[in-house]
Amino acid sequence: MSGIGRQTWAIAEGYIPGGSHGPEPAMTSHETACLLNTGDETAAVEITLYFTDREPAGPYRVSVEARRTQHVRFNDLVDPEPVPRDTDYASVIRSDRPIVVQHSRLDSRQAENALMTTVAWSA
Q1: CB 69 within 8 A of CB 106
Q2: 1 alpha-carbon distance from chain centroid
Q3: Are 48 and 57 in contact (CB under 8 A)?
Q4: What pLDDT does residue 41 have?
Q5: What is d(CA 99, CA 72) in angstroms, rounded to the nearest whole number?
Q6: What is the pLDDT of residue 73?
Q7: What is the pLDDT of residues 4-57, one digit of tens each?
Q8: How many Å apart are CA 89 and CA 83, to the nearest integer?
Q9: Distance CA 71, CA 79 (A)
Q10: pLDDT digit string (tens) for 59-82?
Q11: Sign of dihedral through CA atoms 96, 30, 122, 90?
């Protein structure tokens, strides 16, 4: 079966709060890209981050096995450099196979947590 989705995705909104409220790691403020690969081959994925005041960071490389999902916390991306906290950014996600991308954020800076999610824009 060929995979559903697209090979290029953009998430125009990105921000990891510097603080968190509650037990770690479950309640650590974070951004996540949820990657779905319904195809029969592993997808090689690259994530590039864009900022308002500096050159892009990346690519961060991730693989998503065939017929699997991979939830990538941007907090855990460290190579080629850690994703900065308290900094606005956007991301472009490119895959060598069709995938589906959904974005979510947990903002736990205060006890009343906020969770948002959206499907990324596909090109």
Answers
A1: no
A2: 25
A3: yes
A4: 96
A5: 14
A6: 87
A7: 999 999 988 887 776 555 555 554 555 789 999 999 999 999 999 999 999 999
A8: 9
A9: 17
A10: 999 999 999 999 998 888 999 999
A11: negative
